[in-house]
Each structure stands twice: as structure tokens, then as C-alpha cells.
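Following up on my earlier thread - several people asked me to post the actual chain instead of describing it. Fair enough. Here it is, all 290 residues.
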Amino acid sequence: MYGLKKRIVLSDVEPSREIRGFLVSCAVQMMKRRPIIGGNWKMNTDVESGMLLAGAVADHVGTCDCCEVVIYPPFLYLQAVDSVIDQTSLCLGAQNIWHEANGAFTGEVSGAMLNDIGVSSVLIGHSERRHVVGESDTLIAKKMKTSILDGFQTVLCIGETLEEREAGKTLEVVLGQLQTGLADVAPAQMQMVVIAYEPVWAIGTGKTASPEDAQSVHKEIRKCICGLYDESIANTLRIQYGGSVKPENAAKLFACQDIDGALVGGAALSADSFNAIVTAACESYKAQEV
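Reply from S.P.:
Thanks for posting it. Predicted structure:
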């Protein structure tokens, strides 16, 4: 019949390299990575204050569903905090994990133990674990592998010291930590990984990398992931910034193309400050729709 055109099924046609590149480019432009905000409480709070803080954050997160939010209380308070947030959208995270399932490892905590009390996310390789406790890249890689196999969202923390930055070694250090940390992570497992770039010189010092400097490093991290895996994985990977993030600078950081949220330290101990950062992330995400 006249006027009818044959329906072309894209799967029946092998697109040229140029068309494939164009389609990938379009997909990247349409893609929005859901921001993720983490609150690392470190060795702070007690049972009562921790439960109150968790409750205040959970109440706020319930009004902001376009952002994923995770809090990382001290080990001792995980179960108490979980009792407060269990029926909310706020996620529970742990600050560390051991790479063996059980055994004579005094002071360590296994993935099975964390699973038992509702943990869904784990921090690996935080600068304080690297530089204060002395964890090596090899140990961090083992923890990454274990955390992912145990089913946790796994946040790999990377970042340079002030001395390394002043010596012009920022990318050498950061990308080196990235590659060794992901050495045993398969492409299919990257959906469980979040990267947190935390320049050590900015953690707890009040100093913050400028949005331009932070964006520059995040861009290089994403480029490195593309080389290690592929463009699709690189473009969907969420990369947080950490290092004295506070309500006053959050919006400018989140406006950067390759910054997908924050891992917050000191400001996470104040519900008002932390919730303001969550709000900034949500507003930045919604602005992409305009």
C-alpha cells in the first residue's frame, strides 16, 4: 500500500562508528547522575546524640527524594542509629570493614557483622585510615574486593597530601590510588562503587579546593575510569568531593559537571548544616532539568 513505510528496527542495523559516537554523546548529555551525600561522623557522638542527629537528618531526607543520603556513625552506634532510620530513605553506612570473613582479627569487623545490623554502604581507604592508621594500597584493594562481594555499596576514598600537591603530584597520587583500589573490581561490579575525592590538606582544616580545582581532578578521575573500563561506566560513576564541605560552598561545588555529591565530615555532625548540604545537592540536581 502507498503511504506506508517499512519500520526500521535499530537492532537490525549495524551503526557506523560515527553514529555510535553520536549516540553515546547524546546519551551522556541526557544522563543525570543522582547525587549522593555521605555524612562521616568519624569518632564522634554518643548513643543519645547520634540517635537524635540521625532522626533529624532522616526527617529532612524524607522531603528530598532526588538525592541519596548515607550516614556513617561509629561502629558502636550502628544498631542504635538503624533503629531510628530503618523505616526511612536514609541509608546506614560503616566507616570501615575487614577483608576476612571471620577469625583472630582483634578489633576488626566483618561484612557479615555489618549485614546483620542493616549496613548498606562502606567507606574504604579514607585518608585517616591511610595516613593515621597506616593502611596500604594493597590492604585497601583487598577491602574493596571484600566489601563489593559482600554486597555493599563501596566508597573508595582517594586524595593527595599538601606536600604531594605542592610537589605537583596530585594526579599521580590520586590516579595511582584509584587504579590500585580498583585492581580487583570487575566492570560489572562498578555499579556498586562510588569514588570520593578528598584532598587530605582540606579535610578538617577549613580549607577547600576551589570548585575549578575540584572539577579538574574529578574530570581526570572520570577520564581514568574510562581508560580502565569504558565510557559508559565512566559516565555513570558517581564521584563525591570531600574536604571541608559546608553549606556556604556546597552549591558552587555541586554546580560542577563531574562533582556528584559530597562526603561530609565536620558539617555532618550538625543536622542543620548537613541538611542544608543535602538541599543544595537536590537543588543542583533539579536545576539540570531546566
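The chain has one domain: 31-287. That should answer part of your original question.
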